[in-house]
Write a structure and sequence with these properties.
This is NAD(P)/FAD-dependent oxidoreductase. The protein is α+β, with helices and mostly antiparallel strands. It contains twelve helices and 19 strands. Helix 1 packs parallel to helix 6. Bound molecules: flavin-adenine dinucleotide.
Length: about 425
């Protein structure tokens, strides 16, 4: 009987342990925290967006960091397999907006419990509060691991599923990178994704908490448009967050990593209207409020808190009477309503990112089996690898697919 060691009890590690045990291996799962699945517990705001109901090509399109690397493992264990697994463990699922799949109970705890329950059914040994420090090799092959306390665990195969480096309080402290490098693997430098952005403009503080729906955000680098997203966003005391911001943060962080780039976010507050139509709309409001000051003439057009920053950005005085606004000033206002620009100073730290970009290079991992191309018997799965996705259940699906492949092939391979 093969003895398989899995390091890290997140979604990738638990799925790997389950698959290896289902194939008849003796499996030990080592987890450094007190309980398995700490990060999973906070996914989807505690509801756990398990996967996405779209077809596999669409899922892969949403895995911006090396999605194509998952072609094989995801076809072998796809979103339907994930849904079947949880339904089979007594966790019914439902599909919400954007094809996001959640447990009907809306409880991430049920998802974690189902995985732990399955491991118990299969006789997986789960050892918690055991932090692995090094991978041990013998004659070029994996031989086991050494823990922080110096204990040695021997195994026929080791599957490293220690996650990325974001939300370190959940146990994902980036331990896998040094482990992998010590046995010859290359790691791609890590940076945050799905992370709020920090702006140079201080006025965001005055509008913190304000959510905007149906805006178009454009990310501009050195004056050139690099990405555009339509949807919802929110102002915070340091900058901006919300769905479209988090999605654009991956690309923003890539450019921000190089100091020479100038990164801006342009907000089109009225994307449904052409410039001419918006101008006509502003003119109507000006007629309606012709006896008022400019600051009081925009109440139908903008949330109250946003009037001052928009007027400041357009270099217009809020106390100027509407009937004195020149044509040129009105056009400047219209332009600003469709191009309210914020300079991006940086991202919030990696610790606050939903996912980590970078990690163990996928070039050195077999995409079908997840086995290291350098050290036979060593496998990597989940966020420890250089794979990351947008929000929508894609990150967990990636972890499950990679974990299932590693679990299966660690037993099937010679
Ligand atoms: C706030 C938040 C919300 C999210 N929501 C969603 C969502 O709804 N849907 C979605 O698809 N994705 C979501 N994600 C992303 C998703 O949680 C991760 O991509 C996923 O958990 C990665 O799985 P993993 O198994 O690779 O690693 P992790 O879940 O990070 O698990 C790694 C495990 O390894 C353990 N470990 C680390 N180092 C060691 C060591 N040296 N020795 C032993 N054990 C170790 C850790 O304690 C941890 O338990 C969210 C992330 C965050 C932070």
């Amino acid at each position: 009987m093969k003895h398989i060691l899995v390091v890290g009890a997140g979604p990738a590690g638990m799925m790997a342990a389950i698959k290896a045990a289902e194939n008849g291996a003796e499996v030990t799962l080592l987890e450094k925290m007190k309980k398995p699945g700490r990060k999973m517990m906070i996914t989807g705001k505690g509801r756990c967006n398990i996967t996405n109901a779209a077809d596999v090509p669409e899922i892969i399109r949403n895995i911006h960091g090396n999605g194509r690397f998952l072609n094989s493992s995801m076809r072998a264990f796809d979103n339907q397999d994930v849904i079947c697994f949880f339904e089979g463990q007594g966790v019914p699922t439902k599909v919400e907006r954007g094809n996001r799949v959640f447990p009907v109970s809306d409880k991430a705890q049920d998802v974690v419990d189902a995985m732990v329950q399955r491991m118990h059914e299969l006789g997986v040994t789960i050892e918690t509060e055991v932090a692995v420090k090094d991978l041990l090799t013998q004659e070029g092959r994996i031989a086991g691991v050494r823990t922080q306390s110096g204990a040695i665990y021997k195994a026929d195969a080791v599957i490293v599923c220690v996650g990325g480096a974001s939300y370190p309080g959940t146990g994902s402290t980036g331990d896998g990178y040094a482990m992998a490098e010590a046995v010859g693997h290359t790691t791609v430098p890590v940076r945050p994704s799905l992370v709020p952005l920090v702006t140079e403009e201080e006025w965001v503080k005055d509008v913190q908490g304000l959510s905007l729906r149906n805006v178009r955000g454009t990310l501009r680098v050195d004056g050139e448009k690099v990405q555009e997203m339509f949807g919802e966003m929110m102002f915070t005391h340091y900058g901006v967050t919300g769905p479209i911001i988090l999605s654009m943060s991956r690309m923003a962080s890539e450019y921000l990593a190089d100091d020479s780039h100038f990164v801006e976010l342009s907000l089109n507050l009225k994307p449904a209207l052409s410039q001419e139509k918006l101008d006509a709309r502003v003119q109507r409001d000006f007629e309606k409020y012709q006896r008022k000051q400019l600051g009081n003439a925009l109440v139908d057009l903008l949330p109250h808190k946003l009037i001052a920053p928009v007027l400041d950005s357009a270099f217009l005085a809020a106390d100027k009477p509407v009937h004195q606004i020149t044509l040129e000033e009105r056009h400047r206002l219209v332009e600003t309503l469709q191009d309210l620009t914020l300079v991006i100073a940086g991202t919030r730290p990696l610790a606050e990112a939903i996912v980590t970009v970078g990690g163990v290079s996928v070039k050195e991992i077999n995409p079908k089996t997840m086995e290291s191309k350098l050290v036979p018997g060593l496998y990597f799965a989940g966020e420890v690898t250089d794979v990351d996705a947008y929000t929508g259940g894609y990150n967990l699906q990636a972890a499950f697919s990679m974990g299932a492949a590693a679990g299966n092939w660690s037993v099937w391979n010679d």
